[in-house]
Request: fold
Amino acid sequence: MIQTFENTTTSEISAALREIAMSSPGSGRVLNLIGVIKAGDDVGRAIDICGAASREHPCRVVIVVEDEDAEEDNLRADIHTGEDSGPSEVVVLYPTGTSAKQLDTLVMPLLLADTPIVVYWPNIPPQSPSKHPLGKLAIRRITDSRETEDPIATLRVLAENYVPGDTDLSWAGITLWRGLLAAIIEEYPDFKLDHIRVSGNCGHPSNYLIAEWLQHALNVPVDITNVDVATIQSVKMISEDDDELMLHRETAESVAELIRPDLPKTLVNLPRRSVEDCLMEDLRQLDTDELYGEIMTSGLVDREPVEDDSSHGETENA
Reply:
């Protein structure tokens, strides 16, 4: 169900939210999730992502549609309730004119008091999320560089402006890769590691993040080879004796091949992660991700990949 309010005020929206809350007592909320998109972006997709996250993390969801071109002072709002919006109501705000220039003042009365605030940009993030009017309110600021026109350029800007509390969903996208690689390394404590090669689409942030994480954790040289795939294709760990440990996954597969010295290939589960999965993971831990901060500020996007003659594949999540 959708309630639409034309030329409205925050007081009117707040009153409608109180009525909704009174009709569904006991539905505790653990956080406020603010989604910020641009006019023309897919509002329905933003609602779907935030609604899915609210199933695991009950929250007040407010989506703000920024329209920098509209000059007329106006505030339109839609309140979505029912199964399609998840267990939480979703408020979609369309501010223009003065309202659009005072987003913090606009949104604050709609948020749950004494409840953490997370701001999420599903598409194009600001250059410095912590300086955005809504980002200033948040304890966590979540971006998704993978959804931008130039993910690596976006990641570079986010790295330059990183402050504790920032995170990007490309980092959550490689959680399963990191878990498997850490398990492989622990299984071979006597493997005299010399260097590592990450192969994948160098237009995708995952390759840079996984390479920098490996170098940070193992203190060995890591290089990146560009291949015509969607995202990461393989991570090959090479010993001083030229033995190899490799995790390899083809683009269309949800399982990977684990290749180890003197052993047959083993298949291991390595499914692709949806945007919803990545967002839910980030909402499980609202403290600053110190490891992500170290990786982002270590010059990860300054790496020079080894290019091949093929073009980049379609960018997907890791």
